[in-house]
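Human:
If only I could read backbone structure tokens as easily as an amino acid sequence. I am handing you a single protein, as its sequence and its fold in token form. I hope you can help me see how the letters and the tokens relate. Thank you; the sequence and its tokens follow:
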Amino acid sequence: MDVTEKVVIITGASAGIGEATARCFAAAGANVVLVARSADKLIAITEELGRLGQSALPIPADMRDRSAVDRMVEQAFQRHGHIDILVNNAGQAAAGTVAEVRPDDFRSILELNVFGVLYAIQAVVPIMRQGGGGVILNVSSMVSKMHIPGLAAYAATKAALNMLSETARGELAADHIRVITVYPKLTATDFGKNSLGDRGLRQGQRAGAAGGQVPDSPELVAEKILAAARTEPAEQYMDG
């Protein structure tokens, strides 16, 4: 899809991969809708993009709250009259071995990483159908294909997201809605610092996920997400 003048919703847009992706799409000529819980950060990014002559609409929302997600999508639609691309990027990790991870932590990231994506998909699909199609990019993780001690809860949510994406890809094909799964590797963001659970285990998670590799920059991941929106592969890996 040519992203010029397209309306792109990006969740988790206040920092890290989400912020880099918003800047990348805006620079490519898209009208970006920035979604995150941090209103002040969204406004600051929007003002900066505005000074560059780029279009952005900040909408604070908690992706775990279905009514908030519905309102966010409706606000974006009312502003632009169409929604062409959805980037489901908002996510969080939780540290803890299978024997000791706190169920409340697991439940919290499951609600964000899986249900938040489901809410957003269900909110945009009717609009995309009405508009003749669209692209949905779900940001997963290579961790979903690995076995790292202390990361079982996070990996499980991303594995669930993978299957959600794969199934939706087939279900929505007739509506010309393409569903793409993106698989970042370790990325140089504050994602690990913001995860739930024991601090020591969080540090161990990051070391385990790295496996000696140099982290990718958020900008590199954003470029891959933009490339996936343009070329529409079923899956996008960072080395592909």
Q: What stands out?
A: The chain is about 50% helix and 15% strand. Confidence is low (pLDDT under 50) at residues 204-210.
